[in-house]
Design brief:
The protein is an alpha+beta fold. It has helices at about 5-20, 25-40, 45-60, 65-75, 105-120, 150-160, 185-195, 215-230, 245-250, and strands spanning about 85-90, 95-105, 125, 135-145, 165, 175-180, 195-205, 210-215, 235-240, 240-245. It has 3 domains: about 5-10 and about 135-205, YebC, transcriptional regulation domain (Alpha-Beta Plaits, 2-Layer Sandwich); about 25-75, Integrase, N-terminal zinc-binding domain (Arc Repressor Mutant, subunit A, Orthogonal Bundle); about 85-135 and about 210-250, YebC, transcriptional regulation domain (Alpha-Beta Plaits). It has 9 helices and 10 strands. InterPro entries: Integrase-like_N, TACO1_YebC-like_2nd/3rd_dom, TACO1_YebC_N, Transcrip_reg_TACO1-like, Transcrip_reg_TACO1-like_dom3, YebC-like.
């Protein structure tokens, strides 16, 4: 059941090298709006909304901003913005597959921004479905802190997890626990009940296989592309199917 999360290590390395900022207020607020719109505007009865609010608070978004975002999603506040959830797919340098999930009120603007970002960094924006067949949509709980594997295994099995992967980082230890989409809330509850600190519970596209990147220039292009994509206000998540060679993670 155990493994090691290369993608998590890549994301951490990218954050250190590029000093990537956290999600902007706009991105996090939009996630709250959509969550409130898709379910009831009460976090106690809406897991997606509860998770979005937790992320927003962790990023320092004031409660007033959170309340306004919930009201917009519930339709109790004046707002002309009609946000759509859209998945974009494309290729990075060397043919690496990339999935971008966005919330936008203007499809044309978002597509143009993404196309420019892909092209400038050696990739290209493709058609919907061109790479998603290489990924599976999973529920993922991220745990931070030292891990007792026996306890984690017990909690993961209790929560209906498929697999967990340890984060190979002495400075920031933790683990990612994977499950089916519909089982994410149950897993989150089980892990918290066992005293684990769950920093994030999300849906994520997980690659079925990965491409090993050993060339430093290709690595720089890919990491820069992901950084540029994540900086766009309309973008919520970016996932790719590459691993970096160990010497590039140092």
């Amino acid at each position: 059941m155990a493994g090691h999360s290369k993608w998590a290590n890549i994301k951490r390395q990218k954050a250190r090298v590029d000093a990537v900022r956290g999600k902007t207020f706009t991105q996090l607020s939009r996630a709250i709006i959509v969550a409130a719109r898709n379910g009831i505007p009460d976090p106690d009865g809406n897991f997606q909304l509860r998770t979005a609010i937790e992320k927003a608070k962790a990023a320092g978004i004031p409660n007033d901003n959170i309340d306004r975002a919930i009201a917009k999603g519930a339709g109790t506040a004046d707002s002309n913005a009609q946000l759509e959830e859209i998945r974009y797919e494309g290729y990075g340098a060397g043919g690496v597959a990339i999935i971008v999930e966005a919330l936008t009120d203007n499809r044309n603007r978002t597509a143009a921004e993404l196309r420019f970002a892909f092209t400038k960094r050696g990739g290209n924006l493709g058609e919907t479905g061109c790479v998603s067949w290489m990924f599976d949509l999973k529920g993922v709980c991220t745990i931070v802190g030292s891990i007792d594997e026996d306890r984690l295994l017990e909690a993961a099995l209790e929560g209906g997890a498929d697999v967990y992967e340890l984060l190979d980082d002495e400075e920031q230890p933790g683990a990612e626990v994977f499950t089916t989409v519909v089982n994410l809330e149950r897993l989150n509850t089980a892990l918290r009940a066992e005293g684990f600190k769950v920093s994030d519970a999300e849906l994520r596209w997980v690659p079925q296989t990965t491409v090993l990147v050993e060339d430093p220039e290709q690595s720089k292009q890919l990491l820069k592309l992901i950084e540029v994509l994540e900086a766009l206000d309309d973008v919520q998540t970016v996932t790719a199917n590459f691993d970096l060679a160990d010497e590039l993670l140092g």
